[in-house]
């Protein structure tokens, strides 16, 4: 059917109408675009916009949808989980405030795109206590601000969180990056993406697991064994999947 996410405008009006939906539930950012507003209004389909600008909006969104769809028995455990994970994460960061690492968010296959400190794309890392060295004003909502290698060397981050596998595979052997502390100390981590991205793009409920993965790689809290347990709990609660050891390793690798 296509979509409107991430700036895409591929949704097909005829296909949408053929589905005869009773209503459209839309993330408010997507619904605010002119094309989305025109499409939904001209289709005469009731549209419900849900505020999901922040990780903190997830619990409220689950409760709202539970009321709307009469599925509170399903959504309330998800809302409680979201509240507890964000609370625990902030409490952990407060305990570790003197040890918060500088975290460079490397995007693109060359690692030379990143996010400004105020960007929603960096939110999960920020909530997990990462200090963003790339202080700037976002040039647009899509992010991925261009960065030079010289800037990264000056930032000298303790940790690099990377979106692309190609970058992670190549950076340790790239002499241009050898002076960066995160590379020297082998603290370059690839964001897991199964079933989809844990941090961003899209910024979904998977960030609740992403927060726990981030504190695991940044502070070893939870440790590897405890994180495996939490990961299994998350997949069981949100995705109704019982992970085995092989699946667990495949997701993280």
UniProtKB/TrEMBL annotation:
- According to the UniProt entry, the coiled-coil residues are none
* Domain called Fe/B12 periplasmic-binding: residue spans: 1-222
Q: Which GO terms describe its biological process?
A: cellular response to iron ion
Q: Read off the Pfam families from this record.
A: Peripla_BP_2
Q: Please give the PANTHER family that the UniProt record associates with this protein.
A: MOLYBDATE-BINDING PROTEIN MOLA (PTHR30535:SF34), VITAMIN B12-BINDING PROTEIN (PTHR30535)
Which protein are we looking at? ABC transporter substrate-binding protein
Q: Which source organism does the UniProt entry give?
A: Sulfurospirillum cavolei
User: What high-level taxonomic lineage is stated for the organism?
Assistant: Bacteria, Pseudomonadati, Campylobacterota, Epsilonproteobacteria, Campylobacterales
């Amino acid at each position: 059917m296509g979509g409107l996410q991430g700036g895409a405008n591929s949704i097909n009006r005829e296909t949408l109408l053929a589905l005869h939906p009773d209503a459209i539930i839309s993330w408010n950012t997507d619904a605010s675009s002119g094309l989305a507003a025109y499409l939904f209004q001209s289709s005469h389909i009731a549209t419900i916009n849900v505020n999901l600008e922040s990780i903190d909006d997830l619990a409220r969104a689950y409760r709202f949808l539970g009321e709307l769809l009469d599925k509170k028995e399903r959504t309330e455990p998800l809302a409680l989980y979201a509240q507890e994970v964000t609370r625990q994460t902030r409490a952990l960061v407060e305990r570790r405030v003197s040890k918060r690492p500088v975290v460079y968010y490397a995007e693109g296959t060359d690692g030379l795109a990143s996010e400004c400190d105020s960007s929603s794309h960096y939110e999960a890392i920020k909530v997990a206590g990462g200090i963003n060295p790339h202080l700037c004003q976002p040039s647009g909502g899509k992010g991925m601000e261009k960065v030079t290698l010289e800037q990264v060397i000056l930032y000298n981050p303790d940790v690099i969180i990377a979106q692309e596998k190609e970058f992670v595979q190549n950076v340790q052997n790239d002499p241009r990056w050898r002076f960066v502390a995160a590379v020297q100390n082998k603290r370059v981590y690839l964001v897991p993406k199964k079933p989809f991205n844990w941090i961003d793009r899209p910024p979904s409920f998977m960030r609740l697991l992403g927060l726990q993965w981030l504190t695991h790689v940044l502070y070893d809290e939870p440790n590897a064994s405890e994180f495996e347990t939490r990961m299994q709990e998350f997949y069981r609660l949100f995705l109704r999947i019982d992970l085995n050891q092989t699946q667990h390793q495949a997701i993280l690798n």
